[in-house]
Records
---
Amino acid sequence: MQSERLISDPEQVNVGWLDEVLKRSGALGVGRVQGFDLACSESVNASIARIRVEYESGSVGTKPRSLFLKICKNEASFLKDPEVHYYARQYADLEDHPVPTCYDTGSSVAGYHILMDDLSATH
C-alpha cells in the first residue's frame, strides 16, 4: 500500500495515479478511473482534498466514489509514522468505530500523504 511517489500537493493527483493506486489496493479490479473532481482545503496541519471518482462503464471492484487525501509536510510538526501506520492497518474487529479503508500512503523526509475513504457524509 506504500506508494513510491509522495503526493506533496493535491494538484499532483491525476487519473493515472488514482487508477494505479486503486488497482494496487484491490479496490479496482477491472476497468479504469475515467475522471475525478477535486475539492481542496487547508487545515492547520495539512492540505486536505476530497476526491469524487468516476469509473469507466464495466469497471469492477469496490470502486470507492469519495476519497479523502491528507498531505502533511514535515514543517507541520506532526508525527507522521503513527498516523500513517494507523490508517494503513486493517481494523476488521472494531465495531461501531468508523475506520476508513486506506488505499495508499507515501512518506519521506519531506512529509507524508494518506489516501483513504471519505467518511464525511456520515461522520
---
Amino acid sequence: MTVRVALLTREFPPEVYGGAGVHVEYLARELDRRPGIDLAVHAFGLPRPSPLVGATYEPWDAIDARTGPGAVLGTLSVDVAMAAAVAGVDVVHSHTWYAAMGGHLAGIVHDVPHVTTAHSLEPLRPWKREQLGGGYRLSSWCERTAIEGADAVIAVSQGMRADVLRCYPDVDPARVQVIHNGIDPDEYRPVDDHDQLPPLGVDPERPYVLFVGRITRQKGITHLLDAFALLDGEPQLVLLAGQPDTAEIAAEVADAVGELQAATGRVVWLDEMVPRPAVVQLMAHAAVFVCPSVYEPFGLINVEAMACGTPVVASAVGGIPEIVVDGVTGRLVSVDADPADPSGTPRDRARFAADLASAIDDVLADPTRAATMGQAGRDRAVDLFGWSEVAARTEDLYRALL
C-alpha cells in the first residue's frame, strides 16, 4: 500500500534558516526515495523549484504579517489554507508550531492521522515574548492544541520527549516517539579544500573557533562572546550568525562583536546566507566548533560539525548530551540554570562563560587530541544519525497509524 503524505513546513529550500528546515529538507528527500511513500511538501512562502513541493502559501493580504501578533495571525492564515489543500492524503505530517495547526485542522477536516514533529517548545522559549508580543500567547496556544490533539508526536531526542511530557502532561506518553535528526555524511564530511575561506575573511592558516546559528537567546551567542574574551592564545572567532529575533538582541550582539573586534582584531562575522559548500569548509577546518545554547531540543548543527571531523564544545542541555560525548568527541559544559526559569539562562553568566572558555582552551591546547576527537565525532555521526534510518522509522510510524 502506498501512503500519500502531506509534509507541512514553514521552511524548505532555498528558504532554510534553522535546524528544523534542514531536517525537513533531508527527510523529504529520503521519504521520496522510499517506494511506499507518495510525498508532497506544502511550504510557507514563494514557489520553490523542487519537484517535491506540491504547493506554497503566503499570509492573507488582509493581515499585516510584519508585526508580532500579525506574524502569528499570518501563520494561522497559511495553516488554514494548507488544511484546505491536502484533501485526499493518508497522513499529514507537520513540523514546528508554525505548521502544526495546519496539520491539526487537516486531521480534523479530512479525518486522517496527524503526526507532528516537535523541534522546540514555546513554553521553553519565553524570550519570544520580545519578538512576538501578544502573538506569543497565540503561538503557544497553537502548539499546545496541535500537540495535545496529534495522533503521534515525534520528539527529536529523549530530552525533547521528556520536555513534551513535562510541558503538556495531558499527552499520552505512548503517542510520543523519539526519532533523532540526521545528516548526510557524504555532504557533511572532512574536506581538504579551503579556497572559499579567504573570500569570507577567514585565514585558514590560523586556528579558529566557529559558531553557526541564529542570533537568539536560545543559541547562547552572547555567552560565546563573553567566553572568547577569556581564551588563551590568539585564535580567530568566526560567527556565521544572522536572523536576529529582535532589534534588541541584534544591537546587543553587534555591540559585543564590535568591542571584541576592537580589542583583538580576530573576529569574522558573517551575517548573510553562506552557500553550503562554504559552510562545510568552515566546519571542516575549524579548530573547534562551539554550541553554547541554553535550550536545544536536539542540536543538529553539532552532528553536522562532527560529521566534518571537528571537535565540538557544547552546552550540556536538551538533546546535546545524546550527540556529543564528553572527552571523546569534544567537551560538554554544564549550564547552572534555575529549574523554575524556563529560559534556561545561567544563574551565573560569568561562571558559565569561564567554564565555556576553559573547555574551548582544553581543545585548542592539544591539536593531536582534538584531531582524535574529530575522528571519533565523525564515526559517531555516520553510525548513529543517517537520514535513511530516520526516514525508515518515520514511514513505520505512518503505517502504524493507518
---
Amino acid sequence: MKYNQKRSPLKKDSLRHAGQSLDEKIAQVLDEKILTPFTIVAILWAVVIVSWISLYFKIPYTPWTLTVVALIFTIFYGIKIPAAVKNIRNMQLGRDGECIVAESLLELKAMGYMIYNDIVVESFNVDHIIVGPAGVFTIETKTYRKSDSNPQISYDGNIVKINGAKYEKDPVQQAKGQKYWLEGFIKDKTKLTIKVTPVVIFPGWYINGSNNNVEVWVLNENALITILKNKEAVLDQEQINLISSHIESYNRNN
C-alpha cells in the first residue's frame, strides 16, 4: 500500500547551543569509558555467578577461566573509570562556563548585536561569535576552578598566569587562530576586510592587567559587556546583516 512519506514540520535546523561540542564529547566519554566497560564487566560477572551456581549444584561446568577473565576486565576498567569521571567533570565545568557566558551576551542583543554559539570548524570550535556595531569578536571561554586562597589571573598582553603560574594551555594563541579563521571566512563569503577582535573570557574571575593596545583581550564576561556598551560603532547595519547571515548559515549547517 502506498502512503505519503512523513517529513519534519521544521523548516530549518536549529542553531547550535552554547557548549554543544562539550556535551557531545561528554556523551562520547560516558559511553566509551564508563557505560560500555560497565556493561562488559556486568555481563562477565553474570556469567561467573551462573558458573559458580552450576558448580555448587554439581552441574558440570568450569568457571575458573571466566572468573579470571572477569577479574582482568574489572581491574582494567576499574583503573580507567576514575580518569574518565574526572574528564567528564572538567568538560561539564567548561560547558557550564560557556552557558554562563552565552547568557551574559544576551544583554547585547538589545544593542543590535548578533550572537552565535559553538561554531564548529574542522579541527576546533569557536565558543561564541559576536557581530554588532562595535565590530566582530570571537570568544574563547576558559572555565577554571578557583583555589581557596586568594585566586588571581594576570595578563600582560601575551601570557596568562593563574596564581602566578603560566596557564597550562595557551588561550592567547588559540584565540588568535580563531580570529584568523573568521577573518578569512568573512573575506571569502562577503568580500569585506574586517578586523576581528579575539577575546578570552574567564567567567567569574577578576583579571589583573590591561587590554589596551593588545591583539587578544583577556577578561571576564561582565567586563566585556561594559566595554562593548561604550565602544564606538565601526560597522553599519548592512554590514552586520551581511556578515551575520553567512555566519548563521554556516552555524546551521555544521
